[in-house]
Amino acid sequence: MSFLPQLVFLIILGAASYILTKRVIFLKRNILLGKAETRNDQPDNRWKTMLLVAFGQKKMFKRLIPAVLHLFIYVGFVVINLEVLEFVLDGLFGSHRLFAPILGSAYTLAMNVFEFLAVAVLLACLVFLIRRNILKVERFQKPEMKGWPAMDGNLILVIECILMAAILTMNATDQILAARGIEHYTLLGTLAFSAPLHGIFDGMSDGTLIFIERFAWWFHIIGILAFAIYVTYSKHLHIFLAFPNTWYTNLKPKGEMANMPEVTNEVNMMLGIPSETSTDPPAEIGRFGAKDINDLSWVNVLNAYSCTECGRCTAECPANLTGKQLSPRKIMMDVRDRAEEVGKSMDAGGPGLEDGKSLLGDYISKEEINACTSCNACVEACPVNIDPLSIILQMRRYVAMEESGSPAQWNAMFQNMETSFSPWKFSPQDRFNWAESVKEEEMK
Amino acid sequence: MSSYTVPTMAEMASKGESPEVLFWVGCAGSFDERYKAVTQAFVKILNKVGVSFAVLGPEETCTGDPARRAGNEFLFQMQAVANIQVMNGYEVKKVVTACPHCFNTIKNEYPALGGNYEVIHHSQFLQQLINEGKVALQGGGEFKGKKITFHDSCYLGRANNVYEAPREVIKALDVELVEMKRCRTKGLCCGAGGAQMFKEPEPGKKDINVERTEEALSTGASAIAVGCPFCLTMMTDGVKNKEKENEVKVYDLAEMIAKDMGI
Distance of CA A88 to CAs A205, A212, A219, A403, Å? Predict the structure, then answer.
C-alpha cells in the first residue's frame, strides 16, 4: 500500500492549517485595532443571546422564506462538517469510511441525513442565486454591492453547490464500486439521495469510477479547506464570527448612548462640581469621537467582520428608503475595508493608520452620517446583532467636537441650547407660560 | 368648582412638600404651539385624577438629547448635569414625561451622570391610571368605533421596548386600532429623531414623514395617534403634505384621553 496519498494529504492539511492560522492572527489583530472595551457583564444573558440569535437563528425568522433556506445551509454546514472529521481521519490513516464498521446501520442513517442536507443546501443555494441574480431582490442591488461584494456572494453560493455535488457524486460512485465488490469499498444500506445518480455512472468501468470517486473525495476535502481560507477573505466570515458577535451584543437599552467620562470630568470642573474621578490621573484623551477605526471600539470592528452584507439593515433604514446616501450596511463594509487596508499596510511595513487616509472622509461621508435618525431600525433588523448606529454616532461626535463641522442648522441649535437652554430660540423666561391658561380654567 | 393647578417643585418645596411624581414637560411641551395642548391635556388629567405632581417650570431646561445625538457631548453633559443638580436638589424620585426623547435620556443616560430616577412615559402612566380605574372613560366619545392607527416612536419602541402601553391606552377608548404594516419593532421612523428635527433632511428622493404618513393613511384610519412631540409635528406635516388635514387628525394619547373625559 502506497503512503503517497497520505503524505500528500498531510502536506495539504498542514499547509491549509498554516495559512488559516496566519489569517486568524491577521483578523484578530485588525479587530483589536479598535479601542479596548470591556463587555463581560451579565454572562448568563450573553450566552443566552448567543444561543438564541446565532445558534438558534431567532432574528432570521423575521423573513420566513430566506430564513428557511438559510436554515438548511446552516444546519447542512454544521452537520456535514461532522463528516469532514471522517474525511480527515481517512486521509491521514489511508482508511476508507473509517466509521462505517464501528457505527453499522447508524452510519447508513447518518449518511442519509448528510445526503438529505447536501441536497437541501444545493437547492437553497440555487434559490439564493436566483434571488440575487434573476429576481434581483432589492437589498442586493444597492450601490455598495457593485463589484466584489456581489461577486463574493455569488462565489460562495456556487462553491457550496459544487461541494455538495461532490459529496453526492462520491457516494454514488462509492456505492456502485462497493456493490461490484471492489476492495476497500464498503457496501452500506440504501443512500436515498445519491442512489438516483447511479444511472449516470452504472455503465462506467471500475477504473473510471474509482477515478471519479477519488477525484470527488479529494475535491471535496481540498475544496472545504480552500473554502475555509477563502472565508477569511470574505463576507462569509459570519459563519464563525456570528457567535462571538452575538455574545458581545450591547445589552443596554438601544436608546442609550454611551457616556464619555472624559467629558464629564471637564463639565464638572466647569460647573465647579467636585468630580468623583478628578483625583485619578487624567485618562489619556485621544480624540473625541471617531475619525478612524482605532477610535472605534474593538466591538465595532468585530461587528464589521461579522457582517455578511445581507442588507436587512439598509432595507429598514428610513434614510435609505427615502433615497438618502446613508446605508447602514455600507457603514459596516467601510469599517471592515478600512481595517483590512490598515492591517495590510502594517504587515507590509507601511504607514498603517498614518497613511493620510481615514474612515471618515475617505470611506464614509458626512452626508451619510448626517442622514441618520438614530431610529435603531438597522440594529433591530440585524440577524447577528450588529450595531451600525454606534459607529455613526461616534463619528458625529468627532465632527461636532473636533471639527466643529456639524451642519449649520445643528450649530444654530447648539447655540440656542447654550443661550436659551432649549433647541429652539425661545426665552427661558417663557418656558412656563403654557400653564397660565390652564390655571385660569375651571376644573370640570 | 376649583380651577386646575400646576404646582412647581419650588412652590411645593417652600411649603415643605414634595410630590409623588415630577412631570417633565420638555421643550416641545413648553414652547411648541401644538404640543402645549398636549401638556395642558395631560396636566388636566393629572388634576382630575388627583395625582400629586409638580413641574420644574422655569427651572427646567432641555435634557440635552438633540445635542448628544448631533455629536455635541459637551453641551449634552452641561445640560444634563445642571438638570440633575436641580432634580437631586428636590430629591426627585419619580419622573413622568410625554416626550420619548426626554424619557430615554433621563431614564437611560442620566444615571451615568448621577441622576437616578424611576422614569416612565406618559403612555405607561395613563395605562396605569386606566388599569387602576382612576381614569373613568366615557367609552370613546368622538372616537368611539372609529379607526385609529398608532405610530410607534423609535425612542419609545425600539429604544426602550415600550410597545403595548400606548396601544392599551388607545384600546381603552373603545376604538378600532388598526396597525400599519411597519409597526412595533419594525415601526418606521417619522424622520425627526437623532436631531433631524432641527435641520433640513439630507438630499434624497422623498421626506421620511411623507413616506410614513402615506402608510398611516393607507390604513384608512380617521386619526393617527402618537406619543411623541416630534412624531406629532412630522405626522401633522405629512398629513398636510397629502392634503388630508380635514379628514385625518393627528393626536397625542393624552389629548385623546382628555377629550374622552370631557376635559
Answer: 28, 19, 13, 56
In the numeric block, the cell 412631540 is attached to: B229
pTM confidence score:
0.96
Of A254, A273, A380, the CB nearest to B81: A273
Domain identity same for B117 and B213: no
> Class of the A286-406 domain?
mainly alpha
pLDDT tens string B52-94? 999 999 999 999 999 999 999 999 999 999 999 999 999 999 9
The three cell numbers locating residue A280: 485619578
Q: Which three cell numbers stand for residue A411?
A: 450649530
Is residue B88 domain-shared with residue B171, that is, in the same domain?
no
| Backbone φ and ψ of B46, nearest 5° | -60, -40
Residues in A closer than 8 angstroms to B43, CB to CB, are 435, 438
Q: How distant is the alpha carbon of residue B257 from its chain centre? A: 13
Helix (H) or strand (E) holding A435: helix A434-440
pLDDT in tens, A47-76: 999 999 999 999 999 889 999 999 999 999
Partners of residue B2 in chain A, C-beta under 8 Å: 442-443
Cβ-based neighbours of B209, under 8 Å, separated by 6 or more: B190, B191, B192, B234, B235, B237, B238, B241
Residues B208 and B100 reside in one and the same domain: no
Question: Is there a contact between A321 and B197 if contact means CB atoms under 8 Å apart?
Answer: no
* pLDDT for A195 beyond 80: yes
